[in-house]
């Protein structure tokens, strides 16, 4: 893989960080990933190693104890981690989104209180936007916050929390009608609350329950949960940014960088699938020669490698655009859409190259085959990405008649 998915223009520090992460993946993640995944076991030793490397604070500013690195550096690290085991990159991603939202939108008190402990990995973040009947329609949120003196009382059910059990801080998006008269656009009456809780399952603080892990086809190891609020009381100073009605914009900003992360995950999984496919094709013999010498397999390898390169380039472009301070929803949407679709195709081609053995749990490609579909829906489905891309294109290419 020395020649695929290279990134030009990196600094010496970025190259050193990536080299360290790559070594960690090769030594600490790849040898145990499939075994842990089959047991659906939380990778505590791996998470402790990432904490020691400082990756939980990779993008948190140095003034708060982080490394102060760019979105590009973070995305390239995620690509490496997902190459080892995509679930581990999910543990990092939700934490990163909450830290990013705090850095961009939090009050000074909120930043001072949370970011140093998040940088150290002592506080782990999760964010909660979806609900059981919500899907992609964020405006249909029914969970609600009602003002009661110096507190808000939250009620409702949230769904699909990555790190729901292991996290100690959850950014929760709910409807808050206070100060927003009837008829206000739904997205202008939403607020993000910073909810602190104990890690674990059951009632993790009065009024807040994490029922247990959702059993999934893939993306195992990491805990995906529901979150139930029943009279959950939150102080007013835990409204993100200190102002109600800004939650939708804050969450969308977080999801935008999250889409770059999902694109990076797709790139990492696709890279690993290519590695497995090209290696197996040189070991497996049919009709007197390695199957890699058959033209049909060479065509597959050529297509797989091209898709890996294309997805990586678009992911890097989206990250650099965001780092420059420019709007990047078009580039992030394109990168997420292409990388997740190409990931699925590259994994399937590697699966086909393995033949019957790809169906066996003894082979790593079986795990990747179950993991890739999550990327098609995480941080917005392909259809949502196409809507974002189409609307932005019409803005950029408005007909002047």
Radius of gyration: 22 Å
Task: Tell me the structural class.
Answer: alpha+beta
Mean pLDDT: 94
Q: What does the overall shape look like? A: globular
N-to-C terminal Cα separation, in Å? 50 Å
Give the strand order of the largest sheet, numbering strands 1, 2, ... along the chain: 2-3-8-7-6
Per DSSP, what share of the residues sits in E-state strands of 2 or more residues? 5-15%
Fraction of residues in H or I helices:
40-55%
Q: Sheet with the most strands?
A: 5 strands, antiparallel
The total strand number stands at 10
Number of helices: 11
Low-confidence stretches: none
- Please write the string of helix (H) and strand (E) elements: HHHHHHEEEEEEEEHEEHHHH
Would you give an account of this structure?
- The structure is a single chain.
- This protein has eleven helices and ten strands.
- The chain has 401 residues and is α+β, with helices and mostly antiparallel strands.
- The strands form three sheets. It has a five-stranded antiparallel beta sheet with strand order 2-3-8-7-6, with helices on one face.
- Helix 5 runs antiparallel to helix 6 (108-119) and helix 7 runs antiparallel to helix 10.
- The chain is globular, with a radius of gyration of 22 Å.
- The model has no long low-confidence stretch (mean pLDDT 94).
